[in-house]
Design a protein that fits this description.
383 residues; alpha/beta; FAD/NAD(P)-binding domain; five-stranded parallel β-sheet; 10 helices; globular; binds flavin-adenine dinucleotide
């Protein structure tokens, strides 16, 4: 019997999952990708764009590319899902019916936190923000670069550190680093503490070597644009250039469709299946998958990518009558932070209780891993 699988969101997780579903299911079944943007880019490339190591044109991919694979692309935003009737209502009035639904709408960005950041600084998690950083860095005349982490929940917790290392690298290569301070203000108890003490201690050492100062346990209350001040509970600090990593907030469609169980995010089990809904799956930043200690998994493209194959396999198995063959995500994952010259890699099991991640010494080899795993795979999935 013909089945229709709808995927909402064609980013890191949804794009990969749509391709896999098309591969696992023959053409008697329909795969529909609903993506509100016509052109997509991988946010993992933004820190490189910010130091001129990537070009905008090389990052953009057209969602129409999915059509060549036999995937029906609907370039509208999904507004609301009627889960009882299995209908997705699109903005503008159309609707899409499904038998199986994979939700991968990612997280939205809250540029309003801390107050004043949007007016005074560059949003490190957008294309225009990263481009703005590069044009400012090229003829930067100031003394203080501040990187502000807006909330404990951001996309890729390594991104503020990656930005700091790459900016340090950029300035050192131009012989300008001595005159310029790079400071990070973060609410974290210590850099990347959620990945355990070993990662935290190694990262601290690397930051120290590069003279990047981290103000931990320092939620920023406000940015004063005119005074060029960062206001913390215990004092205020100057900046000449401000970069901020915005809070990641749930995409509205999850709550509007009453699928969030109160958190705003979509709770899923380790098979990426939504609680009490055999036909609904969720992956990536929008999904709320918990570790054994009950902590939500971080918002990372590597997780979205790994979950995409679990969800696609489980949906295909249900359609192909292999209900007993449910796959689960094993939790094994890693992250690479580019430092310019070399990269810092740590890996471990995201589902195990906290603190099991192990760092490896920085190496140029991890640059290659990062390029392949974070950038080339994304480009392949969207070409
Ligand atoms: C600066 C930066 C650097 C990063 N570096 C790394 C890294 O090195 N390693 C790593 O693992 N992760 C990294 N990440 C994190 C990674 O980019 C995200 O975790 C990943 O993109 C999440 O994938 P996703 O599929 O859940 O969401 P996304 O890739 O954000 O895709 C969601 C898609 O859904 C679409 N959408 C949303 N709502 C709707 C709707 N209602 N209807 C239709 N379409 C909708 C959006 O337009 C978007 O295309 C980085 C993030 C940033 C910001």
């Amino acid at each position: 019997m013909k089945r229709t699988v709808a995927v909402v969101g064609g980013g890191t997780g949804g794009g990969a999952a749509a391709r896999l579903l098309r591969r696992f299911l023959d053409r008697s079944h329909e795969v529909i990708l609903i993506e509100k943007e016509k052109t997509l880019y991988n946010r993992g490339s933004l820190p490189f764009l910010a130091i001129g190591a990537r070009q905008r044109s090389g990052l953009l991919r057209d969602t129409a590319n999915f059509r060549r694979l036999g995937i029906r692309v609907v370039d509208r935003a999904a507004a609301f899902i009627d889960v009882e009737k299995k209908i997705i209502h699109l903005e503008g009035g159309r609707e899409v019916r499904y038998d199986f639904l994979l939700l991968a709408p990612g997280a939205e960005l809250n540029p309003g936190l801390p107050p004043g950041a949007e007016e005074a600084g560059f949003n490190a998690h957008t294309l225009s923000g990263a481009e703005g950083i590069f044009s400012r860095l090229r003829d930067f005349q100031g003394r203080e670069i501040a990187i502000v982490v807006a909330s404990p929940t951001i996309k890729f917790p390594g991104s503020p550190y990656e930005y700091a290392f790459l900016i340090d690298y950029f300035l050192r290569r131009r012989g300008r680093r001595r005159e310029i301070a790079i400071n990070i203000y973060t609410p974290e108890p210590a850099p990347l503490s959620q990945f355990g003490e070993r990662v935290q201690e190694s990262l601290k050492e690397l930051l120290l070597k590069r003279k990047i100062l981290v103000y931990s346990r320092s939620p920023v209350l406000e940015i004063q644009e005119a005074a060029k001040k960062i206001v913390l509970e215990y004092g205020s600090f100057p900046f000449d250039m401000l970069i901020y990593c915005p809070e990641a907030v749930p995409p509205p469609i999850i709550r509007q469709s009453k699928l969030d169980g109160g958190s705003g995010w979509l709770p899923v089990d380790h098979g990426c299946q939504a609680a009490g809904r055999e036909e609904i799956f969720g992956i990536g930043d929008a999904a709320l998958m918990l570790s054994e200690s009950g902590a939500p998994l971080p918002k990372m493209g590597s997780l979205a990518h790994l979950q995409s194959s679990v969800a696609a396999k489980n949906i295909a198995n249900l359609i192909l009558g292999k209900k007993g063959e449910k796959q689960t995500f094993n939790g094994f994952n890693g992250a690479i932070i580019a430092m310019g010259g070399a990269s810092f890699l740590f890996r471990g099991n995201s589902l195990a209780a906290d603190g099991n991640f192990r760092p490896l010494p920085p190496s140029k080899l991890w640059n290659l891993f990062k390029k392949v795993l974070s950038e080339s795979w994304w480009l392949r999935d969207h070409s």
